[in-house]
Design brief:
Length: 408
Amino acid sequence: MSILETIRQPKQRKLLMSAGLSWMFDAMDVGMLSFIIADLSLKWQLSPQQTGLFTSINSIGMVFGAAIAGYMADKYGRKSVLLWTLLIFSLATGLSAAATGFAVLCILRFIAGFGLGGELPVASTLVSESVQSKDRGRAVVLLESFWAAGWIAAALIAYFVIPKYGWQAAFIIGGLPALYALYLRRAIEDPPRYTKQTAEKGNRAASFRQRFKSVWAKPHRRATIMLWVLWFTVVFSYYGMFLWLPSVMMLKGFSLVKSFEYVLIMTLAQLPGYFTAAYFIEKFGRKFVLVLYLVLTAVSAAWFGLATTEGALIAAGICLSFFNLGAWGGMYAYTPELYPTSVRSTGVGLAASFGRVGGILAPYMVGMLVARHYEIGYIFGIFFVTILIGAAAVLWLGTETKGKELED
């Protein structure tokens, strides 16, 4: 049986594939960035601080994109916002190939990050609202699994394209998903749950301030605190570790091409990480998957930071990819389930937006620490502690949502 056949209705499978492909393109863009910066830092002689700034600027755009797109999706619908954010990030990525200076490239990456940050929470909300409760968690984790496919595509592009044709070619390829928006325009529609809520309660009239207050109102405050801590710690650790992964491999003595090769091997472990999380999330629940996978991510991070041999580095990197991306899938499945339809996309967007602050700080922090000659083991020790804080927040503040109907 195909993994997609576990989602029973053909219409839902089509939605999952359509949203999943847009998710894959997002991942390809972020994934290529980590490889591009390794090549660009050599050709443009970027300092570690500039490298950290470049990897952070994408996340700065994502902070604004997630918050604004989440609100707009509650106000104007999931479909239209998904299409516009896809177009924004694709066009900005394609134009990045023409950048002739560091400042211009950073501006374009900010715009691409805005579109990227907006699309991800809207897509997860759209799928979560469109699938029945017994399949909902699995469907969103499977949506997240397309992220691994995008990273694998990025690693392949990096391995075969960047060394031969340069970083500009990677950006051109990253701009092609703009054409996919034409297909999405007819392939997806807003969930009946959202359209019914909008028609009955005039949901579009609520302002951003009203929705923000609702997310932090007493019924949702505990969930919001937990989600903001979870998102911050997961995004902080992910972008700090994975955007620097090729560069860290080079710091450990491997060539550019060899580093790309090893990161490709590590990236392949993301898919089984997602698929096992998709199975466990409906069998044992959201909290079980998140806590278990986060704790094992922390252990893998410490192992990777301390590894010295080639075999240990690859093995630790594989475990890091497996458990970290499985946790991402659980987080995206869990977050929309904690808010009612009227503010669901806003709640998801705000949590993602706060999390992206971690995505700004971590890559820049790594750049500063590398410039000051801190050991890689020390840097990954910071991620070890951070991830455990996220696991503790879920364990103590989280509520289980497995099998529950979404709140209207």
